[in-house]
Design a protein that fits this description.
- By secondary structure, the chain is mainly beta.
- It has two domains: about 1-185, no CATH class; about 195-325, SH3 type barrels.
- Helix content is about 10%, strand content about 40%.
- It contains four helices and 26 strands.
- The strands form seven sheets. Strands 12, 15, 16, 19, 20, 23, 24, 25 and 26 form a nine-stranded antiparallel β-sheet that branches.
- A hairpin with a 5-residue loop joins strand 4 (about 95-105) and strand 5.
Length: about 325
């Protein structure tokens, strides 16, 4: 009975108004614990096949679902841009359908659908949709600049808002949803040598981003909702310019600056090595302090022009350390 009920909910994507829509289904499954629920993946595929009868890839995918009893997982999470993710799991892993939904603060709803069938076409295809109040999905154009012919795969992870773009040549790039409902393609831009990856480590609820070093507030990061990883460069008297176009779901339309006192990194002395802090960016400079703590937390204050040395402040003291000993990942160790 439960399976039949879920199937009816999902298939209702293509039924007239007042039937269950994709946003209503998301609301049905939403929970604060971010748990996955098993759903009937064939029902989702059937819904898309019925709405897009002329799309050969969608029709082929639905056929692959209908041939067996493949299941999927349904994710939901409460956040400013909430989403769902459907990721069917296959015994032979020959086809895949992912659906991700964002409900923006002003009621704008957008969806992304990734479809792939390795038997016919190993390249993944991404469809972006505007979702109306009655649940109808209208195709949107690809984000400006997206090199569709050079994309090997897309990934719609449940952890954040970004859609990662795996190009045949080059590093990962991203598609991000804006608060106005549009999608922005972020091409990879090589980081300058004098830059660092770090994370926001602020004891306050909100962290201010400023238009210039010590200038007016550009926006605030809510530290209760996310742990922000950013790239910083161009240090200026304790302030760093943020290199990224986005921080979390906040788009940076111009220069954005952040103070070193709310930034964190960890040392990579995983084997318990003692790390010297020097008076200047040189191995010949005097040692002013020593970090003996394994994976010590430090705050980056400055960086040498070649990026090989970083000035840090930590419990052991303040001084210059070789940048190779620093890790800007708050979740795991760095290789």
């Amino acid at each position: 009975m439960k399976k039949t009920f879920v199937l009816l909910l999902l298939a209702a994507l293509v039924l007239p108004a007042r039937a269950q829509t994709l946003p209503e289904i998301a609301a049905t499954w939403r929970n604060k614990d971010y748990q996955a629920k098993t759903v009937d993946a064939e029902g989702v595929a059937r819904a898309f096949a019925a709405q897009y009868p002329d799309n050969a890839l969608i029709q082929l995918l639905y056929t692959s679902f209908a041939e067996g009893e493949q299941k999927g997982c349904f994710f939901s999470n409460e956040k400013e841009m909430e989403y769902i993710l459907l990721r069917p799991h296959f015994a032979k892993n020959v086809a895949e359908l992912q659906v991700k939904l964002w409900r923006h603060p002003k009621g704008i709803i957008r969806a992304a659908v990734k479809i792939q069938d390795d038997r016919e076409d190993p390249v993944a295809h991404l469809f972006l949709f505007a979702v109306s109040a009655d649940g109808r999905m209208t195709p949107m154009a690809d984000p400006e600049g997206l090199p569709v012919d050079d994309v090997h795969d897309y990934s719609l992870p449940p952890e954040d808002d970004a859609i990662s773009v795996d190009r045949i040549k080059g590093p990962y790039e991203y598609i991000l949803p804006r608060k106005d409902g549009t999608f922005k393609y972020l091409a990879h831009v090589a980081r300058p040598d004098a830059s660092l990856s770090c994370y926001v480590m602020d004891s306050d609820r909100y962290t201010n981003l400023r238009k210039s070093p010590g200038g007016s507030v550009l926006g605030r990061l809510d530290n209760s909702e996310n742990e922000y990883v950013i790239t910083i460069c161009e240090p200026s008297n304790g302030w760093w310019r943020i290199f990224d176009d986005f921080v979390g779901s906040m788009e940076l339309s111009g220069d954005a600056w952040i103070h070193y006192s709310v930034l964190g990194m960890r040392t990579r002395n995983y084997g318990g090595q003692a790390l010297p802090l020097r008076a200047s960016a040189s191995e010949q400079a005097a040692v002013v302090a020593t970090i003996k703590e394994e994976e010590a937390t430090v705050r980056p204050m400055d960086i040498s022009a070649d990026g090989k040395w970083t000035k840090v402040k930590c419990d052991a003291g303040t001084g210059w350390i070789q940048s190779r000993w620093l890790c800007g990942n708050p979740y795991t160790t760095c290789p």
